[in-house]
Amino acid sequence: MRVACLGGGPGGLYFAIAMKLRDAGHEIVVVERNRPYDTFGWGVVLSDETLANLRAADPASAEEIRRAFVYWDDIAVFYRGTVTRSSGHGFSGIGRKRLLNILQERARALGVELRFETEIDGLEPYRGYDLVVGADGMNSKVRNAVAHAFKPDIDVRLAKYIWLGTHRKFDDAFTFIFEETEHGWIWAHAYQFDADTATFIVECSEATWRGLGFEHMSQEETIAACERIFAANLGGHRLMTNAGHLRGSAWLNFNRVLCRTWSHDNVVLMGDAAATAHFSVGSGTKLALESAIALAEYLHTEPSMGDALRRYEDERRTEALRLQSAARNSTEWFEEVERYFHLDPVQFNYALLTRSQRISHENLRARDKAWLESAEMWFEERATGARPNSARPPMFTPFRLRDLQLKNRVVVSPMAQYRAVDGMPTDWHFVHLAERAKGGAGLVVTEMTCVSAQGRITPGCTGMYAAEHERAWKRIVDFVHAETDAKIAIQLGHSGPKGSTQLGWETMDAPLPHGNWEVMAPSAVAWSRDNQLPRQMTRADMEEVRAQFVRAAEMAERAGFDMLELHYAHGYLMSAFITPLTNRRTDEFGGGLENRMRFPLEVFHAVRAVWPSAKPISVRISANDWVGADGITPQDAVAIARLLKEAGVDIVDVSAGQTSQAARPVYGRMFQTPFSDRIRNEVGIATMAVGNIYEPDHVNSILMAGRADLCCLARPHLADPYWTLHAAAQLGYTGETWPKPYLAGRDQLHRLAGRAEPATERV
Ligand SMILES: Cc1cc2nc3c(=O)[nH]c(=O)nc-3n(C[C@H](O)[C@H](O)[C@H](O)COP(=O)(O)OP(=O)(O)OC[C@H]3O[C@@H](n4cnc5c(N)ncnc54)[C@H](O)[C@@H]3O)c2cc1C
Ligand SMILES: Cc1cc2nc3c(=O)[nH]c(=O)nc-3n(C[C@H](O)[C@H](O)[C@H](O)COP(=O)(O)O)c2cc1C
Questions:
Q1: Residue 761 has pLDDT above 60, yes or no
Q2: d(Cα 289, Cα 133) in Å, to the nearest integer?
Q3: Element (H, E) at 347
Q4: Which residues does residue 712 pair with via DSSP β-bridges, in sequence order?
């Protein structure tokens, strides 16, 4: 086979080697613009797993690479005059130049032709080859030449970075250094890669970069400025650049590259040309090397080149997407890091270590138990005001809002049961809520309980608008207080345009087959083509609804609820006022966000005035309409939360979506938690996170990283009312209260859990 590898980085060289090892008869040329010892960049980090893959693919070069490795175990974070050090992370580093030289020598020995100092400019010279591999990096010309087929999507990320080196070795830890300047924060990622050199990547926001004048500096001036900024950690050593071939200052923005397809006819993309992963997760070289091995293998095991390219693309693209998802989390964390600079060093360090969401709480325990326990004790001290003697998982620490003290951080999220009769909660609700209160959660929230018959979503929804409702709710609340140490909140809402619809397990959100009632909304905008057109509310309607909320709050207080949540999410009445998708009013209740928030805030103030000042109020919002800039964006949610905070709301329950049929949510583990994180850390208000949080590990990492104060779990509590008690047993925590009649069950569960494997997630 005649193969042209265009680009002599790790991907192109390793592919040439892997092909020759499989068949020495292949005729392979590697085309590279640089000279052999002339390469941009300093050290790269590789994992033990990658080295094992290299050893299996080519023991000879793997041994050379292994010998060139330097190892370290710790991560050190310099931040606000402190250094936090954790261990067990296990990295190895190698100089990029050294790696390439090893691969060049190996390729040459195997008979690969290395054609240096040759610019690739279009595919014409390579027409006669059986296979053309585009391994020419992030700015690939091969990719551009066949852009119509590869359909690249290039996202230029926000931060500025420069890749430098230094003889200050940083040989004891992978080191992050955060420095505050008069123009904002700037940070370095530093790690050793050979006996006397370390990589030193400097990164900052564009605003800081401009403020510090880097925009107009030469490379020499940039280096001098960085040496001044990081002097405390450089110990008198200089910073160095080897990007002399780059014009200007050598500062770059990272390009996230994604391609719709990776192969077209006999041209195939590899490594950074096909997909990039941000340097802060340090896996781009790994991706390129492992793709090279995979393609060489499939070309020799699949029946045809077409089959080989298809299999390569299927498998490697999935792998790249998985890595890019972690890389995106990490990139965004650094882009938004200014949000976290108010955090204590312990929490800041934890948030940094878990930023890609590949490393969980229990992974950290496995890496460095002592450090994690000290962090847990710090968290507990903040929660209780007293220094504990031993660590407990963050989810089992108490939380206070006004005079309400929750025993732990787990919340049974509101969930409609559709079992009410004319708004009356029935025995179903009694058993359902009582079971969940017995199950260990600190707070149980009722389903959306409607402030009027018209305000119900379905005929099966509960209400708080008749004396018998109040009595039925009181029976439930009294049980919870008498028999458990959980607290109970009522969620009050009005369905607005999504009212008069079928039960959840029928056709959700669709009108009733018969017996529909009139619905109203801020504007005459129907939920869907099938739903009735709501009546646009008058001022008198608004006053009536406000009075209904006040009446329901008064009844909830008499029924003994500990807390009240206002449902301003999911497209129901208040949410329909907040989102511009359904609020088209031209009066003072429509238009800009302040106007759209006017009625929801008016209702909040009216409710707050009758709700006891010792008891907190939360508001649930949809922090993202998932329709882009036409609807509520996470940035708008920050502004909403700011208004709620100013109004005196105690905690924001950060949900998302269900406000538009056009929504395109991006699901995943904890997928709404970033909105809670942003609100909590930008606005400075307590938050509850919700949405696909289902493992104790999720709850602990969200709390410990300061991404929320409480975690709501909905579906997990449908499957398991005792989720919290089970989590305690799984984590070996014995401080939770079990109902006395169940103590024998507790003892058995803890005994059995003790025999089980500890809960860990793979990195
Ligand atoms: C600051 C920074 C730090 C990083 N740290 C790590 C890390 O710690 N660990 C890790 O695994 N990865 C890291 N990476 C990523 C890693 O460098 C890349 O993912 C990896 O090099 C990709 O290999 P590649 O062979 O696909 O492309 P490249 O290494 O980019 O190689 C492409 C080659 O093609 C050549 N070329 C390009 N265009 C032409 C042309 N027109 N004509 C001729 N030749 C051309 C280039 O000179 C180059 O030699 C880092 C990246 C950056 C930017
Ligand atoms: C059956 C069911 C009913 C729900 N009813 C409500 C409700 O009444 N009020 C509300 O705010 N959210 C309601 N939700 C949304 C949940 O509270 C939660 O936000 C959502 O299910 C995501 O959390 P999860 O991934 O833990 O299930 C409901 C969810 C389910 C599954």
A1: no
A2: 13
A3: helix 345-353
A4: 411, 690
For residue 735, give the 3-state DSSP assignment: coil
162 pLDDT more than 50: yes
- Ligand 1 touching residue 99 (CB < 6 A): no
Strand partners, 635: none
- The encoded tokens of residue 381 equal 């001290």
Q: Calculate how far, in angstroms, residue 257's C-alpha sits from the geometric centre of ligand 1.
A: 13
How many CB atoms are closer than 10 A to CB 335?
17
Which of 90-99, 219-228, 287-296, 717-726 is the least confident region? 90-99
Cα–ligand 1 centroid distance for 110 (angstroms)? 23
At a CB cut-off of 8 Å and minimum separation 6, what does 629 contact?
none
Residue-wise pLDDT for 541-577, tens only, equals: 999 999 999 999 999 999 999 999 999 999 999 999 9
Which residues touch 418 (CB under 8 Å, ≥6 apart)? 458, 460, 461, 503, 504, 505
537: which DSSP letter?
P
Q: Where does 491-614 have alpha helices with state H?
A: 539-559, 573-578, 593-596, 598-610
Q: Does residue 605 surpass a pLDDT of 50?
A: yes
Strand (E) or helix (H) holding 290: helix 284-301
Residues β-bridged to residue 710: 688
What pLDDT was estimated at residue 246?
58
- Two tokens, residue 699: 């709850």
Average pLDDT, the chain: 95
Q: How far apart are CA 190 and CA 227, in angstroms?
A: 13
Q: Give the H or E element holding residue 401.
A: strand 399-401
Among 279, 291, 228, which residue's Cα sits nearest to residue 53? 291
**If you measure from the C-alpha of residue 135 to the centroid of ligand 1, how many angstroms do you get, rounded to a whole number?**
9
Q: Which numbered ligand comes closest to the C-alpha of 448?
A: 2
From atom 1 of ligand 2, which residue's Cα is the shortest distance away?
Answer: 415
CB atoms within 10 A of CB 692: 16
Q: How many CA atoms lie within 13 A of 636 on its CB side?
A: 22
CA distance 419 to 432: 11
**Strand 27-31 relative to strand 113-115, pairing:** parallel
Instruction: Give CA–CA dist 621/545, Å, rounded.
Output: 19
Predicted confidence (pLDDT) at residue 111 exceeds the cutoff of 50 = yes
Residue 172 pLDDT class (50, 70, 90 cuts): confident
Cα–Cα distance, 114 to 100 (Å, whole number): 12
Percent pLDDT > 70 in the chain is 98
Say if residue 375's pLDDT is above 70: yes
136 touches ligand 1 (CB under 6 Å): yes
Which tens digit of pLDDT belongs to each residue from 300-342?
A: 999 999 999 999 999 999 999 989 988 999 999 999 999 999 9
Residue 625's identity, in one-letter code, is: D
Cα 341–342–343 angle (5° rounding)? 90
Are the beta carbons of 20 and 300 closer than 8 angstroms? no
β-strand partners of 619: 566, 652
- pLDDT, residue 632, reads 98
Residues with catalytic annotation?
572
| Pocket of ligand 2 from Cβ distances under 6 Å | 413-416, 447-448, 491, 504, 567, 569, 620, 655, 690-693, 713-716
> Tokens standing for 710?
């409480």
Buried residues in 80-110 as b, exposed as e (16+ CB within 10 A) = eeeebebbbbebbbbbbbbbbbbbbebbeeb
Write the DSSP assignment of 238-287 as a string of letters: PEE---TTS-TT--EEEEEEEES-SEETTEEE-GGGT----GGG--HHHH
Q: Give the number of whichever ligand sits closest to the CA of residue 689.
A: 2
So what's the pLDDT on residue 248? 65
